[in-house]
């Protein structure tokens, strides 16, 4: 199981999403999980494909091909607007 | 260098935070504070919205990741400049126009270090820390878009 | 732009001065404050003197001329940057190690203006305002020499 | 009469100085008044001759050849050290 989090505007398109992925079987990466999510939810898919969206695994920014393991926390981060 | 990092819903007291920095040690010759406030308008979806329509702001963050990034930011500043104390406070949750949002305070021996570090911390925070804000206009929430000026502001600090 | 200039013996309250700036108007998005403190050593006659020997500081100024210069400095900053409020407070008379000496506060819409103006005001104040300080070392007063770094600091602001 | 003020370290060399100058007669300037002062007080003269000493008439920085009139306030200013 991978816990998937959506922040900022991404949250508007992703209420009640639960994702069950067998990580070892599909050799999960943020890119693959984004594809799975986009199949189910076209609007969310468009948002996730935006150039400035970053991805974090276990609270650390990683590349889109970073290997994800069972129990990891995956977060999709739109451009930040704090301060 | 002593750093003090907080993410919280509660308001902060600038006078109190200044005193905390000032009293850290006797070498301190300069304290710079920055406070960011909710303006009566905000760039939202590339358009300026007047205050009378902006009734609230809501700040979300990524708990755990935000605090770690803020700690990194403070450490990076302490590598670049000789600092005696750094405080970074960022509020989350619902805010109203004119509310305080963010506080950065820096104590150092000399003024140029405190000025540079405080500005660097704010620029870095704006561009890197995992906060997202939305504003209530009329009866609708709108996510705030990042400003390109914030990206430009980071350029002066070189590679990051 | 509202400016507030004071030269006085009394101590100032940074929290109070911050509030005065913050509450000037609703356009304010950024408030930067600088506070200068008496360090436990001071460059005197080109030598660093340790705190245990520096027992007091005494600040003299040229009444009338100082206030006029401080007002000029604030006006010059308001020409260079879009500012909503400026406060400059400088103490005179006898001070002790760790006492507050000088306060500069700037309120503006955006942070870079407040940071730049506050640093500019301090650089200008150090180089131009008619204050002279002496420090008590052992049982003797020594006039403090100006630092060449203060002259260098002004260079970044161009012609003045 | 010209009121003459000494600030900072200059004050240490100039206690109880009173200066009566007939301004019109001597066409007084800061330079001339500095000379008069230096004749009476060699140590003060040395201090006043230092390159960084500035001079103000009626609280405004002026050149050393600025014409001084009766009733003016003349001030000798060593390098400032506030802030």
Compact summary:
The complex is a heterotetramer, with 2 copies of chain A (83 residues) and 2 copies of chain B (160 residues). Chain A is α+β, with helices and mostly antiparallel strands and 83 residues long.
Walkthrough of the structure:
The complex is a heterotetramer, with two copies of chain A (83 residues) and two copies of chain B (160 residues). Chain A is α+β, with helices and mostly antiparallel strands. Chain A contains three helices and four strands. Chain A has a four-stranded mixed beta sheet with strand order 1-4-2-3, with no helix packed on it. In chain A, strand 2 (54-57) and strand 3 form a beta hairpin. The longest helix of chain A is centred in the middle third of the chain and has 11 residues, at 30-40. A four-stranded mixed beta sheet of chain B has the order 1-6-8-2, with helices on both faces. A four-stranded antiparallel beta sheet of chain B has the order 7-5-9-10, with no helix packed on it. In chain B, strands 3-4 form a two-stranded antiparallel sheet. In chain B, 32% of the residues lie in helices and 37% in strands. Chain B has helices spanning 14-22, 65-80, 111-128, 148-155, and strands at residues 2-8, 30-37, 42-44, 47-49, 54-61, 85-91, 93-95, 100-108, 131-137, 140-143. Chain B has a single domain (2-144), classed as Aldehyde Oxidoreductase, domain 3 (Alpha-Beta Complex). Chain B is of the alpha+beta class and 160 residues long. Chain B has four helices and ten strands. The radius of gyration of chain B is 16 Å and the shape is globular. In chain B, helix 2 packs antiparallel against helix 3 (111-128) and helix 3 (111-128) packs across helix 4.
